[in-house]
Design brief:
disordered N terminus, nine-stranded mixed beta sheet, alpha/beta, Rossmann fold
């Protein structure tokens, strides 16, 4: 499969006539932006929020060479694996990957997952704890791809790896109906652009998409880039902009190949989006849900007050993370019915 190089053209396809509503969980549609002082967080969330800001925010704003080892060390501090989880190092289409199988799982479902890290860092290891809990909640195997990273490997390297891995899973005999494609942050971007690439190439699509705080607009045009800048405990606007430019390979940042918010979304599978109200990327999720609804996609957006970027990594430590992971598990299980 080939992808348009920078400066190339995008394929266009007729829209698919589907119509489904956006469903907002936990919050009324008219109350997307509550007063953060009225929401109640657990004691652990009130503790881990400032800790996340102290540990993660400077690391994620750092150059890739500095970011990568520090993310691995931080992940080592918070990783908590459910008992009985089997973790295997595998190779998928020539790339390293991790396979996480929960204890007692008899399900045929597989979650094909793209880790976050601004396209500059992160790995299956940094996300191992969260993914092990997702595997347990869903009763499914998780396969996390270690795709190539910028700046050494800018666009479209990660997309090529993700699509090649998808083809390899199909070649192993895994049915598309048993596959769910997921990712967080930049990995949410990658999961979404991978689904779009599969659709455009006429390849089988997954049964569903799971997008955690997805980075869908690399041009940073959402209002929350300003309104949430002081509240975001993990990301900075400057760090996001630098990462976007290092990844873009000379493409305009609003190009739909980089920013799937502006891509054609018709024909994509059922989608779950989770996002925190205190994120600069809030509008990347809210606008994606609206655009997907208009394109006929069955989409649920789960928007949580006072929570930060990819709080789900605190699964096993924080009730809010455990609740989000449980919702992911329920969504994945629902796709097999």
């Amino acid at each position: 499969m080939t992808f348009p190089s920078p400066g190339g053209s995008l394929l266009t396809h007729p829209a698919l006539p589907v119509s489904q509503p956006v469903r907002l969980r936990s919050r009324p549609e008219s109350d997307l932006f509550p007063d953060p002082m009225t929401a109640s967080l657990s004691l652990r969330a009130r503790l881990f929020g400032p800790v996340s800001q102290f540990l993660l925010q400077p690391v994620l704003a750092a150059p890739a060479a500095e970011m990568r080892p520090k993310l691995e060390r931080i992940a080592g501090l918070i990783t908590r694996i459910p008992r009985g989880t089997r973790i295997e190092s595998i190779t998928l289409a020539g790339r390293p990957a991790e396979k996480l199988t929960p204890k007692g799982s008899g399900s045929r479902q597989v979650i094909y997952y793209m880790h976050g890290g601004a396209y500059l860092g992160g790995s299956p290891r940094t996300h191992r704890g969260m993914l092990a809990h997702i595997a347990q909640a869903a009763g499914a195997t998780v396969i996390a791809l270690d795709y190539r990273l910028a700046p050494e490997h800018p666009y479209p390297a990660a997309l090529e790896d993700a699509v090649s891995g998808w083809k390899a899973l199909l070649a192993q005999g895994i049915k598309p109906a048993n596959l769910v494609l997921g990712g967080d942050s930049a990995g949410g971007n990658l999961a979404l652009v991978t689904a779009i690439a599969l659709r455009d190439a006429g390849l089988p699509l997954p049964a569903g998409l799971v997008l955690l705080s997805p980075w869908t607009d690399l041009s940073s045009s959402g209002a929350s880039m300003g309104t949430r800048a002081e509240r975001d405990r993990v990301l900075t606007v400057r760090g996001i902009d630098r990462a976007a430019r290092e990844f873009a390979n000379g493409l305009p940042l609003a190009d739909p190949r980089l920013s799937p918010l502006f891509a054609r979304l018709e024909g994509l599978p059922k989608t779950l989006i989770q996002v925190g109200d205190d994120e600069v990327l809030l509008d990347d999720s809210v606008r994606l849900a609206d655009a997907a609804r208009k394109a006929g996609v069955d989409v649920t957006i789960d928007l949580k007050p006072q929570l930060w970027h990819v709080w789900q990594v605190m699964a096993g430590w924080m009730p809010e993370a455990d609740q989000a992971v449980a919702a992911i598990g329920s969504f994945v299980r629902s796709l097999s019915r």
